[in-house]
Amino acid sequence: MTDASDNSAVETAAADTGSSDAETVSDLDAYAASLVESLGALGSTVEFDTVRIHVANDRWVETINAANKDLELFSWLSAIDWSKEVEVGDPVDDVDALDERFEVLCRLSSVKNGDGAIFVTVLPKVDPTIASLEPTIAGAGWHEREAHEMFGIEFDGNPNLIPLYLPDDFIGNPLLKSYPLISREVKPFPGDVDVEPMPQGDADAIEPDTLPEDEEDAS
Amino acid sequence: MTTPEMIHRSDAAVSIELQTPDMTINIGPQHPSTHGVLRLIANIDGERVRDVEPVIGYMHRGYEKISEVRTYAQITALVNRIDWVSGFANEVPFVVGVERLVGIEAPPRAQYIRMILSELARISSHLVFMSSYPLELGATTPLMHALREREYILELIEEVTGGRFHPNFNRVGGVKPNYGGGSTTKKQSMDLPAGFFERTRSAMDRMDKICEDIESLVAGNELFKMRTVGVGVIPADKALEYGLTGPNLRASGVAYDLRKVENYLPYDEVDFDVAAQNGGDCYDRYVVRLEEIRESAKIVRQAVDKIPSGPLQAKVPRVLKVPKGQVYSRSENPKGEFGFYIVSEGGKMPYRLKIRSSSFSNLSILPWILKGQLLPDLVAIMGSLDFVLGDVDR
């Protein structure tokens, strides 16, 4: 299956069941485009019912604050480490084409309907620094602390970037792709045993059995 | 008789500068009212709280990192341990997110079973609140009543899923697969246990009864009201700024419920109201949860009547190929918005999984809300936010 066909299948399903603001492909695309235009963002990605708005990192605070007027609820802030070499898990699909970077994500939602968008900005791998949202959106403070200790991203203007989860003397940023998972070093991936085909039956698919006709619980 | 030099005794008392140096006290991490292991460093001036610094992380299990070395099927077993009071409800947004990526949809019967069990999890979570919150304020009796009724709900969840707290019942494409017996036994269909719907209906009748009991026992109690009415008021704009969701947000006058706006389970086919209050104080947060038990019972009754027959699982490849993409899938957990941001690079494991847990944001308002409060109200306010530390730390 390709991305496009999956995407359209999901969008159609959403439209069929009739969500409150009738999200269809064109509606979400139009919504993303209107956000990009009104906020002066770099562009947008709409996939799998998820709207991502790309923002320049020097206009991060300004854009989020402007968007926060309509999308009132600050939902979360986090980051992704795009790295060519990974200590844990699978590397990215096309390693050679990958542009090594951090992505900082911030999700804002509307409380009037199902609207919402994830704002994305790109930071360099070396010395990643971005202005803090904490002075204007106080709830971002803890999320930035989390991103700071997990990824080592500096949030300029957040006065309280002390570790949130980890002990004070902990060294390293655990969610970096370069940070090893010690339990994985001593024990191989346990999921490998699960992907063997079953001894009988076709290995491709599980055929769903239909239920008996005279089902006693059906009412 | 009175000369300007003479001052009244009461004035004299006031003019004495009482030396009350600030005191820093440590609350927790082992404290009965902190719902797990939460530590508060409170700086207090007499009975007033000057500021509070919550210290979390005692329950940090690193699920976001572990998820990068687990297959999608294995992560389901992890996520129901995040908020263990409502394990089933945690699994739903994750599997819905993966289903969106893969492009399959669970059959209607599976979606209804998810909806019934999610609402049962909501009732069970709120009943824990109904039992623990009065206990924190000094009323021990409601604990017995609410936990007794919760057993009926947990038994229903157990007879369907096999687990009281960690069901691990959702699969990508449906619920527990309807084949079984391993390699030597013939394929056999499995469905809900016989008589499940009758027992669910009678349990819902019990829930209506316990709501009435709790309402007359606790919600109308004058002592309870004195401890909670007007205490810990969270205005709507502050709630939105700190990302409060769920009953905590709805008590502040924002009737925001993802069951109404997000299309993840067939909630549009059942009729229910969003419980909301305007005061934003501890009492309103309590009342909203009490109302939500009633509304959930309403949803379960309708879902049991309307549940369609059919398979429990869609046709799913045995080795799940998840295409490249990023999806944010969220649901209305008993404690608020619960979401997963799944970054897939086409492998069998996610490249990155961000877990947006409701209690983390709900707890982050503590330093703001506790500033200037009386020390005894600290416990009342903290309890009214209804967080679970496993959900905070992940």
Structural features, described:
The complex is a heterodimer of chains A (219) and B (394). Chain A is of the alpha/beta class and 219 residues long. Chain A is 25% helix and 21% strand. Chain A has five helices and eight strands. With 394 residues, chain B is of the alpha+beta class. Chain B has a single domain (23-181, 189-393), classed as Cytochrome-c3 Hydrogenase, chain B. In chain B, the strands form three sheets. A three-stranded antiparallel sheet of chain B has the order 1-2-3. The longest helix of chain B is centred in the first third of the chain and has 29 residues, at 108-136. β8 of chain A pairs antiparallel with β6 (316-317) of chain B, so a sheet runs across the interface.
Could you give a short description of this structure?
Chain A has 219 residues and is an alpha/beta fold. Helices cover 25% and strands 21% of the residues of chain A.
Write the layout of secondary structure elements.
The complex is a heterodimer of chains A (219) and B (394).
Chain A: H1 3-16, H2 25-39, E1 43-47, E2 50-55, H3 60-67, E3 73-82, E4 101-109, E5 116-123, E6 129-131, H4 140-151, E7 154-156, H5 182-186, E8 205-206
Parallel strand pairs in A: 2-5, 6-7
Antiparallel strand pairs in A: 1-2, 3-4, 4-5
Chain B: H1 9-15, E1 23-27, E2 39-45, E3 48-55, H2 63-66, H3 72-79, H4 87-102, H5 108-136, H6 141-161, E4 170-171, E5 174-175, H7 196-219, H8 222-228, H9 236-241, H10 247-250, H11 258-261, H12 282-306, E6 316-317, E7 325-333, E8 336-344, E9 352-356, H13 358-364, H14 366-370, H15 375-384, H16 389-393
Antiparallel strand pairs in B: 1-2, 2-3, 4-5, 7-8, 8-9
Helix pairs in contact in B: 3-4, 4-5, 5-6, 5-12, 5-15, 6-7, 7-12
